[in-house]
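Protocol step 4 of 5: obtain the predicted structure for the target chain.
Materials: sequence only (see below). No template structures provided, no constraints applied. The aim of this step is simply to have a reference model before the mutagenesis design in step 5. Sequence pasted as it appears in the construct record:
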Amino acid sequence: MRRLVYDVAISIDGFIARADGTVDDFVAEGDHVTDYLQRLTGYDCVIMGRGTYEFGYRYGMQPGDRPYQNMRHVVISRSLQLPHDCGIEIVREDPVSAVRKIKSEDGGTIYLAGGAGVAGLLQEAGLIDRLILKVNPIVLGTGLPLFAGGMPGSLRLVASHLHETGVVLLTYDF
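Step 4 output (structure tokens):
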């Protein structure tokens, strides 16, 4: 069975973005970014919600673009419309069953890129195996939570690393 890893940047107070979806307060450069880019090479599939996919539009991505060239792309959305030949799979119904199927297929580790709604749904279904938090040295006060619908129960810390940027990498298993 393939592993699903929710690998996400977060503020000290538990938000993955401001309420309007912006992430300008997060540390954008440094050794933690190099570490993240290296980790991306270990994933062969990315799963994300519509909001996370469309977030790339703010940075010049166009509908149908694949932000992670080395990965299979799966977007969970009832409304997203993309060119049919773009190579992105859209899951419109029953994302839990779709992710269970993907996890049962041959392949490597799956990257859950977000957002909070998708992560909350998959966490409630027990489908997330690992949580990698890039804890940024910021406090947002309000914003988009790590998981919509509440936090999971107890996790087991398996690794931690303090980067020169002040970002702390915490790795937990469910």
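Step 4 remarks: The radius of gyration is 15 Å. The beta strands are 4-11, 15-17, 43-49, 72-76, 88-91, 109-114, 130-136, 144-145, 156-162, 168-173.
Proceed to step 5.
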